[in-house]
Design brief:
The chain is mainly α. The protein has a single domain, classed as Proton glutamate symport protein. It contains 22 helices and no strands. Helix 1 runs parallel beside helix 15. The longest helix is centred in the N-terminal third of the chain and has 33 residues. It is globular. The mean pLDDT is 91. The protein binds aspartic acid. Aspartic acid binds next to helix 22.
């Protein structure tokens, strides 16, 4: 049986077991025991195994990718295409979200008593998140921090500064092309070794994926407030419809037009990536799978996957940007605040920018979303309204986040004259 079939079975069984225990014995001690001592720790161990390898993988694959691209002109060209693609496609995603939220107006469907109940239930969590979001630096300092004074310090924290790591890795890659070949060669060999080691370890970790995915999905669904899903139904429908349109409407066009590849074949080849992104809710944790699937199943050359995909996992989050746009407008509708077209354009811009700054981890976008809310004068505590269902939306938005990176790598590969594997 193929790996993605096994993961898929893990996902379905996890969901069936989780949903039924949620309905049958929601607060039984045995369920709490299972969550606390079995599924939560096992799910976390699986996630940690994947995330543990992200820093060495980003460093090795990006500096190697840059070194293999070789000349600076070519690097500039590939870099320009990649960044432009990220920006344009992310803007398309937010626009889809904003059009839908203006048409459907989910905020008008939220009963006043549900609103008050949610605001009180999740108040504590919202206040905590608001405080942590105040510590998030966003603005000119974000730009300055991209160039790390101390690269080790930039990564040695719970939420590593991925943009700084990316900058450092690119610079090392460039320098490798500028020193004498004889001197560069041993370093390149080492980087190749690190790259291979990380992929082997990830491959071992992915053997656990069916069980890890079962545990992760069980933990989420057995605790999930399904009544909330109904209360926030129209908002959920708007987000999911937007994500689906982007994933199954925009990407196939991009794949067909820019990568000249059959979209159905494309989706079949990236199934494992979609399942991993959905169950881990993390672009970073999915990155190793994204890289190996793009190389092995789609035949994208390694200097392009090595360059585009680590960049994409950090900077290209189409699903997140769409979700942010919809959520800001939804909360504005809930609070009866009318956002003019001008302010909505600011929301588009801020959603694109904050999606670039979002960490590729579960709920990585929430602190930045709070910042956007404050910026357009919507009460930040309003985030409480959506916190209860965020994990499920997070799982869904992470899928277009990573698939968007692969569509970009496919486009760059084709435009550089490489055909994808048929
Ligand atoms: N979980 C998302 C990701 O890793 C980020 C977010 O939207 O919170 O891509």
């Amino acid at each position: 049986m193929s790996r993605h079939s096994k993961i898929f079975i893990g996902l379905i069984l996890g969901a069936i077991a989780g949903v039924s225990s949620n309905f049958l014995f929601p607060s039984a001690p045995i369920l709490l025991f299972l969550q606390q001592y079995i599924t939560d720790p096992f799910g976390k161990i699986f996630l940690n195994l994947l995330i543990m390898m992200v820093i060495p993988l980003v460093f090795a694959s990006l500096s190697l990718g840059v070194a293999q691209i070789g000349d600076l002109k070519k690097l500039g060209r590939i870099g320009f295409k990649t960044i432009m693609y990220f920006l344009i496609v992310t803007t398309i995603a937010v626009t889809i979200g904003l059009v839908l939220v203006n048409l459907i107006r989910p905020g008008d469907y939220l009963p006043a008593e549900t609103k008050t109940k949610l605001l009180t239930t999740y108040k504590g969590q919202a206040v905590e998140l608001k405080e942590s979001s105040e510590k998030v630096e966003f603005g000119i300092q974000t730009l300055v921090n991209i160039i790390p004074r101390n690269p080790a310090a930039a990564i040695a924290k719970p939420n590593p500064d991925m943009l700084a790591l990316i900058f450092f890795s690119i610079i090392i890659g460039i320098a490798l092309t500028l020193i004498h070949e004889e001197k560069a060669k041993p370093i390149i060999n080492i980087l190749e070794g690190i790259n291979d080691i990380t992929l082997v370890i990830i491959n071992m970790a992915m053997k656990l994926a069916p069980y890890g995915v079962f545990a992760l999905i069980f933990s989420v669904t057995s605790r999930f407030g399904f009544d909330l899903l109904i209360a926030l139904g129209m908002y959920v429908v708007t987000v999911l419809l937007g994500l689906a349109l982007h994933l199954f409407g925009v990407y196939p066009i991009l794949i067909k037009v820019f990568a000249k590849y059959n979209p159905i074949l494309f989706f079949r080849r990236v199934e494992t990536v979609m399942l991993t992104a959905f169950s881990t809710s993390s672009s970073n944790a999915t990155l190793p799978t994204t890289i190996s699937v793009s190389k092995e199943n789609l035949g994208i050359p390694s200097h392009i996957t090595g360059f585009v995909l680590p960049l994409g996992a950090t900077m290209n989050m189409n699903g997140t940007a769409l979700f942010e746009g919809v959520t800001v407008l939804f909360l504005a509708q809930v609070f009866g605040i009318n956002l003019s077209l001008g302010v909505q354009l600011i929301v588009v811009l801020m959603s694109v920018l904050t999606a670039i700054g979002t960490a590729g981890v579960p709920s990585g976008s929430i602190p930045l979303l709070i910042m956007v809310l404050t910026m357009v004068n919507i009460p930040a505590e309003g985030i409480a309204i959506i916190l209860g269902i965020d994990r499920v939306l997070d799982m869904c938005r992470t899928v277009p986040n990573v698939i968007g990176d692969i569509t970009c790598a496919a486009y760059v590969a084709k435009s550089e004259g490489y055909d994808l594997k048929l």
